[in-house]
Amino acid sequence: MQGHPRAQVPVTLGTFTQLYSCTPRGARLARRLVANRMDVWGFAYDSGVSEAVTLVVAELAANAVRHGRVRGRDIRVRLVLREDVVRVEVADGRADRLPVLREPSDGEGGRGLLIVVALAERWGVEPREDGTYKTVWAEISLPERLRSMAGKGLPPGS
Predict the structure, then answer these.
(1) What is the largest CA-CA distance in the chain?
(2) Angle, CA of 80, 83 and 86, to the nearest 5°
(3) In 3-state terms, what secondary structure has residue 2?
(4) Is the dihedral of CA 97, 31, 121, 114 positive or negative?
(5) Pick the residue with more confidence: 35 or 127?
(6) Strand order in the sheet with 75-82
(7) 127 partner at 20 to 30 Å CA-CA among 28, 77, 78, 137?
(8) What is the mean pLDDT of residues 56-78?
(9) Which residues, including other chains, have CB under 8 Å from residue 158's CB and lie 6 or more apart?
(10) d(CA 122, CA 116)
(11) pLDDT digits (tens, 9 = 90+) for 21-56
(12) Residue 144 scores a pLDDT above 90
């Protein structure tokens, strides 16, 4: 029997999920803990991958705080380490406000998504079916030389 080639299912090597208050302090804490998690996973603080992931988290968390705040709802940051990418997900409580990519104005702000687009292989938005949250995600590619090392030596449950 001749079969069709199957798409390869990405292998998850590690996950990290944490809730933060939807405040500037929560966004700063998310950035710091993500940098720490990347180090635990074997990507040094000053490595390009760690810096890219940390910057994407900082931008998406700041956007969630600024544009996605709903009283009484936290933001959730989730990292998924796969063989070839690190997927960043930031969920906030404003499913009715989707991110818009636009040219920055002369004032402050407007550059966050441009930074995400520059650093990520791809990005998008997934509203939850019940309309209470949305998740903005981005995938940062691992350089070829790091792909064989991704996930090596992770502690159980990372």
Answers:
(1) 63
(2) 35
(3) coil
(4) positive
(5) 35
(6) 12-20, 75-82, 85-92, 134-141, 122-127
(7) 28
(8) 88
(9) 14, 15, 16, 40, 41
(10) 9
(11) 899 999 999 999 999 999 999 999 999 999 999 999
(12) no
DSSP string, 74-135: -EEEEEEEESSEEEEEEEES-TT---------SSS---HHHHHHHH-SEEEEEE-TTSS-EE
Q: What 3-state class would DSSP assign to 155?
A: coil
CA distance 114 to 63: 12
Q: How far apart are CA 49 and CA 117, in angstroms?
A: 15
53 φ/ψ angles, rounded to the nearest 5 degrees: -60, -45
Rg (CA), the chain: 16
pLDDT in tens, 55-66: 999 999 999 998
Is pLDDT larger for residue 61 or for residue 4?
A: 61
Query: With contact defined as beta carbons under 8 Å apart, do 60 and 95 qualify?
Result: no
Question: Is the pLDDT score of 14 beyond 50?
Answer: yes
Token pair, residue 62, equals 């700041």
**The pLDDT value given to residue 95:** 77
Classify residue 65 by its DSSP letter.
H
Quick check: 148 and 42 in contact, CB under 8 A?
A: no
Q: For residue 143, which amino acid is it?
A: P
